[in-house]
Write a structure and sequence with these properties.
The chain has about 425 residues and is of the alpha/beta class. Helix content is about 40%, strand content about 25%. The protein has 3 domains: about 1-170, 3-Layer(aba) Sandwich (Molybdenum Cofactor Biosythetic Enzyme, Chain A), CATH 3.40.980.10; about 175-255, Alpha-Beta Plaits, CATH 3.30.70.2860; about 260-410, Alpha-Beta Complex (Maf protein), CATH 3.90.950.20. The longest helix has 21 residues, at about 390-410.
Length: about 425
């Protein structure tokens, strides 16, 4: 079935906000048997929005709008849908009461009158309450089409999609059951990985996708069959083949992210971790502590930006003088110093040139990451696109995956 996303907001066109919602949804539609063929971004203009929706209605079976459901006059998604379908909007008493109670619980009385715009409905729409905000969604089934509105804030959208919209769509898409799983790998190129799992493509009812992501190469396995039990069986067969082929290269599955995986591995081994980071400027520690309960294994560390602070943290002067501050030797010494200075089992050291310009003859984007675990320490060199935010962000991901790999490969296991 053909699907289309219409993302609404002038801020998306102006570059003030990135349209991450469409890509987030795009990775989830195949699980429902939906083929995303178009993504349209349109500003807060009633005429252009109505035109975009009319075009989507004529060519797609499932249309999903994102944003434009707020209380202000520039939130026009409902208006445009009503105009496109030729239906009249009225205020739903039930939605009005729900909104008033929502504001009352937040001690906002009376509710601003502008929020009544969010209580409007058309005859074809069924309202779906938003558990995380004040913008209900519309579910519309008419003329063999499905149109769904989703709120713009990513947390609200993700919750609405997961709890309400995806289950409803799954019930209405005929003819097949679909289950999927994503396997996240590190240490292989996209081409090398594809070679190793090529035979899995031949499993009946199995679709595979191989994607390059910031945290490694992802393999997405989608199993389709007339019945769910049969689809699950196909997926289990494919998973066994994928795991046999890729083994230790798989660092996680599904929605796992590197900081969570690191935490899981450290907890399993009852290990603690400290960091010394230079070019990442505290971003590594921030990523680690984003995980609830990280105080169980993360001790802390230092932003060792200057050479003086590196010395104070225990990095030998002779290493920095002999090999250079931005070097594999210094990164490894930083990892070992983090472990020694803060009395932990594991340490990470990060040093590099974040850019945008080169420094001391070293190309911007060059980063060295050291990882020390019980019984072993090593450093690796990375070359990232020489844009400062990208360098810093990818260095954090690389550091966490490097530690993940060290722990998974049997390094640092307790005797």
């Amino acid at each position: 079935m053909k699907a289309e996303i219409v993302a609404v907001g002038t801020e998306l066109l102006m570059g003030e906000t990135q349209d991450t919602n469409s890509s987030w949804l795009g990775t989830r539609l195949p699980e429902l048997g939906l083929e995303l063929e178009w993504v349209t971004i349109v500003g807060d203009d009633l005429g252009r929005l109505t035109e975009a929706l009319d075009r989507a209605w004529r060519r797609s079976a499932v249309i999903i709008t994102i944003g434009g459901l707020g209380p202000t006059l520039d939130d026009m998604t409902r208006d445009a849908i009503a105009k496109m379908l030729g239906e009249r909007m009225t205020v739903s008493p039930e939605l009005k009461t729900w909104l008033e109670e929502s504001f009352s619980r937040r001690n906002i009385r009376p509710m601003p009158q502008s929020n009544l715009r969010q209580a409007r409905v058309i005859p074809s729409s069924t309202s779906i309450l938003n558990a995380m905000g004040t913008a209900p969604s519309w579910w519309i089934e008419r003329d063999g089409k499905i149109l769904v509105t989703l709120p713009g804030p990513p947390r609200e959208l993700a919750n609405m999609w997961t709890t309400e919209i995806a289950p409803r769509l799954k019930e209405r898409i005929p003819g097949q059951a679909i289950v999927s799983r994503t396997f996240k790998t590190i240490g292989l190129s996209e081409a090398a990985l594809d070679e190793l799992i090529r035979h899995v493509y031949d499993i009946p009812g199995m679709d595979l996708g191989v994607y390059t992501k910031p945290d490694g190469i992802h393999v997405r396995a989608i199993a389709k069959a007339p019945e769910e039990a049969e689809a699950v069986k196909v997926l289990e067969h494919a998973e066994a083949e994928i795991r046999a082929a890729l083994g230790e290269y798989i660092w996680g599955t599904g929605e796992e992210v590197p900081p969570e995986k690191v935490g899981e591995l450290l907890r399993e081994r009852s290990y603690t971790l400290a960091v010394l980071e230079s070019c990442t400027g505290g971003m590594l520690g921030a990523a680690i502590t984003d995980v609830p309960g990280s105080s169980d294994y993360f001790v802390g560390g230092a932003i060792a930006y200057s050479n003086e602070v590196k010395l104070m943290a225990g990095v030998p002067a002779e290493v920095m003088d002999g090999s250079g501050v931005v070097s594999a030797e210094t990164a490894q010494a930083m990892a070992e110093a983090a472990r020694t200075t803060y009395g932990t089992d594991c340490g990470i050291g990060v040093t590099g040139v974040a850019g945008p310009g080169d420094s001391g003859g070293i190309k911007a984007g060059t980063v060295f990451i050291g990882v020390a675990v019980p019984g072993s320490s090593a450093a690796e060199q990375y070359s990232f696109p020489s844009r400062r935010p990208l360098v810093r962000g990818r260095a954090v991901t690389a550091a966490l995956l490097q530690l993940t790999r060290a722990l998974q490969q049997g390094q640092g296991h307790s005797p």
